[in-house]
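re: ur msg from earlier - yeah i can do the alpha-D-galactopyranose complex, just paste it... oh wait u already did. ok heres what im feeding in:
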Amino acid sequence: MNKELIKTIRARFKTKFNLEPMMIFSPGRINIIGEHTDYNDGFVFPAAVDKGIVAAIQKSESDVSIACASDKNEIIEFSLKNLKPMAQGSWQNYILGVVSEIQNRSKKIGNFNIVFGGDIPGGAGMSSSAALENSVVFGLNEVFNLGLSKHDMILISQKAEHNYVGVKCGIMDQYASMFGIENNALLLDCRTVKSKPFQIDFKDHELILINTNVKHSLSDSAYNDRRSVCESISELLKVKALRDATEYDLETVKDQVTPENYQKALYVIQENDRAVKASKAMGAGDLITLGKLIYGSHEGLQNQYKVSCDELDFLVAQAKLNGRVLGARMMGGGFGGCTINLVAKNESENFKIQAAKAYKAKFNKACSIYDVKLSNGTHIIK
Ligand code: GLA
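and the outut:
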């Protein structure tokens, strides 16, 4: 965890409110495989990381609540009554959305102050938004003794994202951020919302993230569009979600959907299958198979589901040039953010240098490279 960040956030809170806050850490996540399968009731394979959001929170006697985004140096004062979403894209919606969804469940909270900051850049595809939502709901649950379970909390975070942020996300990000286990990835069944932990030790290989440092606009509407395509094809197939369909089933409605939408549904069915196969490969320590599945996932995201972008495709193509990178793919919703790479440890320095150099030469901007440490989910910092 980022000790400097914790120190800064605590100090800011104390200076501003002259009170000792409760400190919360809420992690971002990676996802090994299973992309855009969560809102299809399918399988995903995420893990919480040691980067995320640090929040300082405490009750307030005042008749307004105050939230302060430390990194941006921005503050909002709001009343708990008559909450409404603010302009699309504003950080305030993550906070207001959570407060509103808590109140929708008839839970009573009073005014509060919160200061937060983070060490994953927004748009990295590492779910800084779910981390923020979880930190708010977790903090409010603690300071107002709301008696919410972690399960209740992630549903509140998800609803905040749907109704205030405007992204009809699945449950993967909020789940991974809340329930993460140190050194483990979680094979999550998004229908039952239960997971099986897998201890991650890739021995002489490791995971590396490369952030394209781009986030193309329209990604939110493209996300929601994909979701509704999946839902309409499920309806056509008379199944609850695409998780219940096979490639054979899909074939039977091929002439009733556009070729583009057919490919999207096919991608989801295949990706769900890849996620399950990946967990088996991981259980058997078969990194070669795991790597192939990861490359397969990217191909589907790029060519069938069409949520990638030039920068991500370029980084994956670079990875493919290096025989010691077993697998690489874009991670998260798409249209920017990070690639996740499974690389031989004794090749990783070289790979990082090569990838950074090639990226700079091609796009005339820098990528950022992160090592990955799998961590525990949302918790109080003592
Ligand atoms: C975003 C969403 C998740 C999931 C991924 C794609 O991160 O928040 O629910 O759908 O995209 O796998």
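cool cool. The chain is about 45% helix and 25% strand. ping me if u need the other ligands too
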